[in-house]
Amino acid sequence: MLTVHEFWNNIDQINPYRTLGELAKASGIDYHRLTQQRSRGYMPKPEDLLKLSKCTKHTIESLLTGQNDRSVYSKRVEMIANRCEYTANEEQLFFIEKILGLPTHSVLVSRNDFAGEQKRESSSALA
């Protein structure tokens, strides 16, 4: 197990975002609480560890031991994700990201939004 100082250094190293603030926002942890824990030398609460684990895509074990990394996802999931990256459309990628609990990078426009936009364009063309 890492010391608290080593734990926070490990978080800095694996943080997929530019700042601790962005990591806090992406993980749903209160920024003030996270910075207080860090500055006072506290380990995060278990529920915060789980959120950090999901957000950084590292197991809680690797967060606490610094042994990087057993990825949260299996090799099979990685293989599927790599295949989908080049063959899936945006809607499929969006749902895959949601199912895996990943931050969604895909922009999903629902079919209803698209249909509504087409109706507005056709009615304005008739006017």
Layout of strands and helices, then pairs:
Elements: H1 4-14, H2 20-27, H3 31-39, H4 46-56, H5 60-65, H6 75-87, H7 90-100, H8 111-126
Helix pairs in contact: 2-4
Textual characterization of the structure:
This protein is mainly α and 127 residues long. The chain folds into two domains: 4-65, 434 Repressor (Amino-terminal Domain); 75-126, no CATH class. The protein has eight helices and no strands. The chain has helices at 4-14, 20-27, 31-39, 46-56, 60-65, 75-87, 90-100, 111-126. Helix 2 crosses helix 4. The model has no long low-confidence stretch (mean pLDDT 77).
Tally the structural domains: 2
Uncertain residue segments? none
The profile of the biggest β sheet is:
none
* Proportion of beta-strand residues: under 5%
Quickly give the CATH architecture of the largest domain: Orthogonal Bundle
Query: Whole-number radius of gyration?
Result: 20 Å
**End-to-end span in angstroms?**
70 Å
**CATH topology of the largest domain, what is it called?**
434 Repressor (Amino-terminal Domain)
Q: Percent range for helical residues?
A: 55-70%
| CATH class annotation of the largest domain | Mainly Alpha
List the total number of helices.
8
- Approximate shape: elongated
Report the CATH superfamily of the largest domain.
lambda repressor-like DNA-binding domains
Reading the helices and strands in chain order gives HHHHHHHH
Quickly list its features.
127 residues, 434 Repressor (Amino-terminal Domain), 2 domains, elongated
